[in-house]
Amino acid sequence: MRYIFIIPVAAEDQAQTYVDNNAIEFETHVWRHNIPEPPIVDWGHAVKLSPTPTDPVSHLMLWGEFTPAVAGAMRDGIPGCTAFNGNRREAMAAMGLTQNIPEEEPTEPHDYVLPIMYKIWDMADAPIDINICAQSDKYDGYTCILRYKSRNLVKGLTQGDNTAGVDRTARLATMVPNTITPAARLQIEGEVITNTNDPVQASYAMFGATKTEFRDLGCKFIAFDVRGHNFPTWTQAMEWLGSEGFDTVLNTNLPDYPKDGIVYKIDEVAVHDLAEIKQFAFKFY
Fold first, then answer.
1. What fold is seen in the domain 2-102?
2. How is domain 118-283 classified at the architecture level of CATH?
3. Domain spans of the chain?
């Protein structure tokens, strides 16, 4: 079950200790007025990202797939921690923190919910058999989705809370094919990366950069999945995307864009759809 934990920044040290001692794998975001941030797993670094004393980080949010027992223990083990399951915006609103939610513009639902990526630092902790997985490079950037309908790109959205995102069609359209072959309604998911491989820069490119800055950051959209088009394997789906003119995690060689890990994903779609854990990332130190 997906749980969301909201933790006051004053409990940062206790939260870091709890997460480290219990080997908790998670995604977390820094929340502050009007500044979207990518996931950060270093709590200390997250707090230091506050740009000015007048714009401080007030809360940290952690989310992941946990059993009710683990979620309850985490809630009780971190001072001031509140646990929710469901949508992160609903969780923030329940805490009275809606004013701190970045991406405050109106959001639009994705056609398909984006999955959470499990991350490990030791292959001995692999949650699924890598022998049934395809392998690809992991780029660290800003996750976005593209929606195609009747062969045309009709919308480009940010990842948002994995269920809905903010419209960034104009910038995404500069990185991807504006028309494709099939007429089906498709959702293509990928990572916007910069030539610095810095997720904060990728976030800035999508939200705050001028046209000149956006150009100089060398942004690219690297596709890592497609929904709405049936393929027997994920590898075949990536090969099809490459044939349609997309850069993908399998067909793109970008030596100037450093990688920060390897993704393992169940290749056979029928097995993937039934698996409890479908993919994970081995992170480089």
1. Alpha-Beta Plaits (3.30.70)
2. 2-Layer Sandwich (3.30)
3. 2-102, 118-283
> Which pTM does this prediction carry?
0.69
Contact 113, 43 (CB under 8 A): no
Of the CA atoms within 13 Å of residue 245, those in its CB half-sphere come to 8
Torsion, CA 221, CA 106, CA 85, CA 74, rounded to 10: 70
Would you place residue 25 in the very low, low, confident or very high pLDDT band (cuts 50, 70, 90)? low
Measured in whole angstroms, how far is the alpha carbon of residue 35 from the centre of its chain? 16
Paired tokens of 50? 């506050």
Query: 106: pLDDT confidence band, cut at 50, 70 and 90?
Result: low
For 116, phi then psi, to 5°, come to -85, 140
**Angle value at C-alpha 249, between 237 and 216, nearest 5 degrees:** 130
Strand-strand pairing, 142-149 and 152-158:
antiparallel
Longest dimension (CA), the chain: 53
